[in-house]
Amino acid sequence: MEKYLYTIGETAEILGESTSLVRFWANEFPKFIKPQRNAKGNRLFTKEDIETFKHIHLLVKVEGLTLEGAAKRLRGDRKDVINKAKVLESLRSIRSQLEEIKEDL
After folding, report:
1. Quick check: helix, strand or coil at residue 44?
2. Tally of domains within the chain
3. Does residue 14 lie within any of the structural domains?
4. Is residue 1 part of a domain?
5. DSSP code, position 43
6. What is the pTM of this model?
7. What are the pLDDT digits (tens) for 1-16?
8. Core vs surface per residue 37-54: b (16+ CB within 10 A) or e
9. Where do the H-state alpha helices sit in the chain?
10. What CA–CA distance (Å, rounded) separates 49 from 6?
11. Which residue from 83, 59, 63, 84 is spatially nearest to 72, judged by alpha carbons?
12. How far apart are CA 73 and CA 63, in angstroms?
C-alpha cells in the first residue's frame, strides 16, 4: 500500500536533496506546493507535491533555470517538463540497475 503523505525527510530522500532545500523550495513555490501540517506543525507532502518537487529539481538543478524561470515554466505548459522528468527518472532507474549488476559481477 502506497503512502498518502510524506514527511519532509522522506521527501528529501526521494529527491536526493537536503531537507533545508525541500523546505526552501516549498516556501519559494507556494502556488505549486501546498504542504499539509500535522498536529506538531510539521510539513507533510502528497505524491503530487513530490512530483512538483521533481519538476522543480529538473528545472533548477538540471536545466539551470533561476527560481523565477522555473516558476514561469511551471505556470506554462508543463507537458515538456513532465516528459523530461519521466525520462530523467527512467535514466536514474537504469543507472541503479546497472550499478547493481556491476556489484554482482
Report:
1. strand
2. 1
3. yes
4. no
5. E
6. 0.76
7. 578 899 999 999 999 9
8. eeeeeebbbbeebbebbb
9. 8-15, 19-28, 47-57, 67-75, 79-104
10. 9
11. 59
12. 12
